[in-house]
Specification:
With about 200 residues, the protein is mainly α. It has helices spanning about 5-30, 35, 50-65, 90-115, 120-140, 150-155, 160-185, 190-200. The longest helix is centred in the N-terminal third of the chain and has 27 residues, at about 5-30.
């Protein structure tokens, strides 16, 4: 197994944990203390590791795709939207906080790559951190439940009985739609991932 691929697997887990922490932090700022009261406003990985999403799924994806696609997620932070003031857009702000935290990490490591003279192998590792976080950010903004992008989609949909029915059915079958997307339509977001990676680092992945 390639060393960089192993490092990617290692780094995507803490990146996913920071992603979930950001959800809880934003919810707390907007009036929902659920995550804080549950002890989830911490970067301690033990509080966030999900057996399936953090361990088993990445291993499955690695072997199922021959190492071409890896993804992980941490245990979702508890969240009560009824505690929020703006019932339409505050849930979107909570959802977007996760991907935004990953883009911030990618941006910071991109600055390190661009402006600090580092050995080639360290640049490679920093580049993996940028790529992993860009991947998490872009992938999570795909408008398929349970990904964060679905919250933005729901906020933009009209509040009518027809669209409410669509939302219920989309939530029910979203996981299967997501699996289809991963295996058959992931290339649709690859250009966005490559563009952001080059924007942050100055070179192609």
């Amino acid at each position: 197994m390639d060393v960089l691929l192993i490092f990617f697997f290692v780094i995507i887990i803490p990146s996913a944990i920071i992603h979930e922490y950001a959800h809880g932090w934003m919810a707390d700022r907007l009036g929902d203390p659920t995550a804080r009261l549950a002890g989830r406003l911490t970067l301690n990985p033990i509080a966030h590791i999900d057996l399936f999403g953090t361990i088993l799924m990445p291993l499955f994806l690695f072997f199922a795709t021959g190492g071409s696609f890896l993804f992980a997620y941490a245990k979702p932070v508890p969240f009560n939207p009824f505690n929020l003031k703006d019932k339409t857009w505050d849930p979107v702000r909570v959802a977007v906080a996760g991907p935004a935290s990953n883009l911030l990490i990618a941006f910071l490591f991109g600055l390190i790559i661009r402006f600090i003279a580092l050995p080639g192998n360290i640049i490679d590792l920093a580049s993996i951190i940028v790529y992993a976080n860009v991947l998490l950010a872009v992938f999570n903004m795909v408008p398929i439940p349970p990904l964060d992008g679905s919250k933005l989609l729901y906020a933009l949909l009209p509040d009518t009985p027809e669209w409410q029915k669509f939302k219920i059915n989309f939530e029910r079958y979203g996981f299967f739609v997501l699996l289809f997307f991963i295996f058959y339509a992931f290339e649709l977001i690859s250009p966005v991932i490559q563009y952001l990676f080059k924007l942050f680092t100055g070179f192609n992945f």
